[in-house]
Amino acid sequence: MPRPIQATIHGEALRHNLARMRAAAPDARVWAVVKANAYGHGIERVFEALRGADGFALLDLLEAERVRALGWRGPILLLEGVFEPRDLELCSRLGLWHAVHCDAQIDWLAAHKTQVPHRVFLKMNSGMNRLGFTPQRLRAAWSRLDALPQVDEISLMTHFSDADGPRGIAHQLHVFEETTRDLPGERSLANSAATLRHAADPQVRGDWIRPGIAVYGSAPDFPEHDIAHWQLQPTMTLASRVIGVQTLQPGDTVGYGSSFTADAPVRIGVVACGYADGYPRHCTTGTPVLVEGVRTRLVGRVSMDMIAVDLTPVPQAGLGSEVTLWGHAGNGAVLPIDEVAKSGGTLGYELMCALALRVPVAVD
């Protein structure tokens, strides 16, 4: 039989989360962000569940081709724009909308030969200092684009650096509004955190929201809020089984480095999952795990192919018992991916995107 580990993508949860984001900004259109192969879920696996969105936003031209190949005829937005002049040929052929964040991209558009003008999203650097024109240079960039026959409609966008935290978005929102006040065009500002926390303000939700991580069942401001607070559902389950059982005596240790020492007799289950499957190596003793839907803990160090879990809360567990690393257990219990990520010193984003190719994936 195959090794007993599997990821499952939950289509109904994806639909639910997309609807939740739309409800948070009811008069805005919704980009379903499917960059990074739909946050590790697989574009082809999530497409049917997310086709209720108004458009798909991503980074990679090959991913844009995959979305078109699935039959999508609506808007597709390249969030980082094109990377070289010849990319514009594919934008013309596939009808892609694309961000413009630097002078070189405007130069490339000016030299591009196309019969169908492009829809572009002019990006402003309102304080995050990654991509985009500074407020002092945005209007000149807009004027250059507006003069080009290769450009149709110009929309305006920015990205918040602190929508999930105490600093908030007011400082960036003010700069964006002041700079773009009398410029025409649709606006797109809000990521997942801004949509859930700040989209009561019509200036924040704008014309298009760009939810990413929340669509995939992770709270953008965890641990301040969890997915239950935001009424989100896990969209990926990683599950395996117990493949071995050991009974430890006081003083016995577990795994490489002997990082866990038993202080009393304890049964542990050895689980077919490790960092080569995408489980975070930096998770330590105490990381939550579900065995037969009962919450217990990881003990010792994560190995390449195995972890050990404490079976004390689940005395009936043994060889073959279901283990939920994150997501939904068979009895309906839920282990949010954010809790596991926190124990590993990272974010739910990374765990989703790090799911290894050797893990089989099903869609329910």
Write a structural description.
The chain is α/β, with parallel strands linked by helices and 364 residues long. It has 13 helices and 19 strands. An eight-stranded parallel β-sheet has the order 8-7-6-5-4-3-2-9. A hairpin with a 2-residue loop joins strand 14 and strand 15. The model has no long low-confidence stretch (mean pLDDT 97).
Distance between the termini: 21 Å
Largest sheet: 8 strands, parallel
Number of domains: 2
Structural class: alpha/beta
How large is the count of helical segments? 13
Brief sketch in words of this structure:
The protein is of the alpha/beta class and 364 residues long.
Structural topology:
Blueprint: E1 6-9, H1 11-24, E2 29-33, H2 35-39, H3 43-50, E3 55-58, H4 61-69, E4 76-78, H5 87-94, E5 97-100, H6 103-111, E6 118-123, H7 135-146, E7 151-157, H8 170-180, E8 187-188, H9 192-198, H10 202-205, E9 208-209, H11 227-230, E10 236-248, E11 253-254, E12 260-261, E13 266-271, E14 288-291, E15 294-299, E16 307-310, E17 322-328, E18 334-335, H12 337-343, H13 348-353, E19 361-363
Parallel strand pairs: 1-19, 2-3, 2-9, 3-4, 4-5, 5-6, 6-7, 7-8
Antiparallel strand pairs: 1-10, 10-13, 10-17, 11-12, 13-16, 14-15, 14-17, 15-16, 17-18
